[in-house]
Amino acid sequence: MDQLSQSTEITYHHEPAEDTSRIWKTFWILLGITVIELGLGLFMYLLPIPAWVDVFIKGVIVILTMAKAFYIVSIFMHLGDEIRNMIMTIALPLLLFIWFIAAFLWDGNEFRTSRNRYDKHFQEQTMKRQIRMGDTSQHSFE
Amino acid sequence: MATTAVAIKNNWWSGGKSPFNVEYGKLMMWYFLISDAFTFGAFLISYGTIRFSQNYWPNPNAVYNAFPGTGHANLPLAFVSLMTFILIFSSVTMVLAVHAGHHNNKKDVVKWLAWTVIGGLAFLACQAWEWTHLITGYHVVLTGNHLDVVGTTVTGNPWGVHIDRAATIADALKNTPHEALVNVVHTQHHDMSHHQLAAMSDDQLRGMLNLAELHVTEKGPVAFGGFFFGITGFHGFHVFSGVIINSIMLIMAQKDVFAKRGHYLMIEKAGLYWHFVDLVWVFVFLCFYLI
């Protein structure tokens, strides 16, 4: 007898995997990625590196985090086993985050740049030691 | 047989069956998780916006460098790595419980759910320690023209730029009121109580300070604590409710509720929630500790 016979909503039941090898493999992948992220984080902390390398490493860490998120959602949450239409109803709304992140970080950066340009007191209080890349307000110092 | 299967497969939307081939409750759990993802996303993005609007932001490696039982040893990222491993591992035990449920294996479901609950509780204990350490970890901060002692809270941030100008510190010490001075001295003399120190005169107190060892910083951006405690707190509350849900699943499985029902689909829904908690932590870990 089908073990899921009482759940009439499911037409096809995914044949459950016999062993747990896929789960453990995913665990080791997640563990490995986390260790690499930590290594990169400590690398940034311990070694004096130019600002562009710093930004590059942070970019790599973000991409590694996205890989971790993919493995958790696809394997642990079994979303990869669902039918395509259902995956799309979940994945497509999340694309809003692309605009969301770009727009708001741009806005924060714009606020900082304007404030530095027009509020010299704020700039003197906070800017002396740490200058971020791509800050156009710095030209006024030259 | 084969032709029937193909015919059905091509007509998911012709009625009479779930077009997503998924149980109602599970689909709704997914949609709830999407809304929750946007809530967490909004929090993290607002944190990013504020951070991008500041010229200075504390280095996480300097803030989160403590480990229980190691005193003042500088161990950046060590404790939060432990928390991350605990949560990833509890995610694995959860998916093993779901796997056992697919095979109607009650003994394994109970075993792995119990480990998941233990993992969740361990994570919460770690977070409690970390919060306590940050809130009660006092640091000497230059506030206006005098020194003060503050912990990391939603209104105070001692993680500003390090001050190494001896003259500035000496001036600030002269202006520091008695109570603040007692607190400053106490950071170097843990063996003496506040009561003992308060009985001394200001000059005596200043004389007790080892200025070469005194680490003084400016105030950092005040939003730092609010975002940290707000977002990790909101996540911690999710962990807490996940532990409650998993405990209920554990009791129900133990009492044969699912065995009588003939399937363990409820474990899958609890599992989705628990994995989501792990997923959010991956991003909290990224935004607060790594970059």
UniProtKB/TrEMBL annotation, chain A:
The keyword Transmembrane helix belongs to this UniProt entry's keyword annotation: yes
One CC-aspect GO term: plasma membrane
Places the protein is found: Cell membrane
Protein name in UniProt: Cytochrome C oxidase subunit IV family protein
UniProt organism field: Paraflavisolibacter caeni
Annotated TM spans: 27-47, 59-80, 86-106
Annotated keywords: Cell membrane, Membrane, Transmembrane, Transmembrane helix
Family annotation (InterPro entries): Cyt_c_oxidase_su4_prok
UniProt topology in membrane: Multi-pass membrane protein
Taxonomic placement: Bacteria, Pseudomonadati, Bacteroidota, Chitinophagia, Chitinophagales
Pfam families: COX4_pro
Signal peptide region: none
Automatic annotation (TrEMBL), chain B:
Membrane-spanning intervals of the chain: 27-50, 77-100, 112-131, 227-251, 272-290
Localization of this protein: Cell membrane
GO biological process, one term: aerobic electron transport chain
GO CC, any one term: plasma membrane
Domain Heme-copper oxidase subunit III family profile span(s) in chain numbering: 1-291
Gene Ontology MF, one: cytochrome-c oxidase activity
Membrane topology: Multi-pass membrane protein
Keywords assigned by UniProt, alphabetized: Cell membrane, Membrane, Transmembrane, Transmembrane helix
Entry-linked PANTHER family: CYTOCHROME BO(3) UBIQUINOL OXIDASE SUBUNIT 3 (PTHR11403:SF2), CYTOCHROME C OXIDASE SUBUNIT III (PTHR11403)
Family to which the UniProt record says this protein belongs: Belongs to the cytochrome c oxidase subunit 3 family.
Protein name: Cytochrome c oxidase subunit 3
Source organism per UniProt: Paraflavisolibacter caeni
